[in-house]
Amino acid sequence: MSRALTTTSVGTSALRLESVTKTYGSGENSVTALRDVSIALDRGTFTAVMGPSGSGKSTFLHCAAGLDQPTSGSVLLGDVELAGMKEAALTAVRRDRVGFVFQAYNLMSALTVEENVALVPRLSGHEVDRAWLRELLGRVGMGDRADRRPSQLSGGQQQRVAIARALVNRPEVVMADEPTGALDTRTGRQVLELFRQLVLELGQTVLMVTHDPVAASYADSVVFLADGRIAGRMHHPTAAQVSEFMTNLGEV
Ligand SMILES: Nc1ncnc2c1ncn2[C@@H]1O[C@H](COP(=O)(O)OP(=O)(O)OP(=O)(O)O)[C@@H](O)[C@H]1O
């Protein structure tokens, strides 16, 4: 049974932020990047985060992933409260309960595809579940390239490996920051389709920051941020609806 199912009660949110405020610095130079943000993500859903530049998207993702601590408020990842946690405990939470996918694939060039994915459970001190690893590589379409090195793969293929790596520890949430930013349109769409599939078939929860309305339209819902606040949430979005909302937020 997956760790997600054994350590959290069914029916709870994968991620819940309650009244999260994040202020950088103090006094005159302080910047409040998030203001009283409350939101819950149901398990097995795909959520996009959008907003104008400087609206707090990265700060939101960082607080949700335990990369940064809120100034006030609560962040529940499954049943684990991250606010107030010491750095060592946060490091363990990030390693065991969060999967990360970035614009740059960040694969280890000296390792094969399979070794890159297996590195995550190794670093967590878990036994590598070979059957799960092979299943994941198959699901992301890299089953026949397990012995290749990253330099022998296209950008889209490298991102598929990064997605398998993000999923291998069966994380509570996969956090993706502009995952298609470095890919051409067609390859980017295929990666977004893959996220949708993994959400649907594995019940994985995915949170993705993007600037692209078409990318956001692949999600079940879009959360809009403006000036550190939630400015709206759209379910079953179309790219045109997302574009229109963004235009109204002042994004050209
Ligand atoms: N470490 C930091 N120290 C000080 N201010 C910060 C820090 N990180 C972010 N900020 C400020 O917080 C606000 C929100 O930044 P954030 O990076 O979360 O926005 P964003 O929506 O991700 O922007 P972009 O789309 O340009 O990446 C901005 O005003 C930014 O300058």
Automatic annotation (TrEMBL):
Record's keyword terms, sorted: ATP-binding, Nucleotide-binding, Transport
Residue ranges constituting the ABC transporter domain according to the UniProt record: 15-252
CDD domains: ABC_MJ0796_LolCDE_FtsE
MF terms (GO), sorted A to Z: ATP binding; ATP hydrolysis activity; transmembrane transporter activity
GO cellular component terms, A-Z: membrane protein complex; plasma membrane
InterPro entries xref list: AAA+_ATPase, ABC_transporter-like_ATP-bd, ABC_transporter-like_CS, ABC_transpr_LolD-like, MacB-like_ATP-bd, P-loop_NTPase
Superkingdom as given in the UniProt entry: Bacteria
Protein name, as recorded: ABC transporter ATP-binding protein
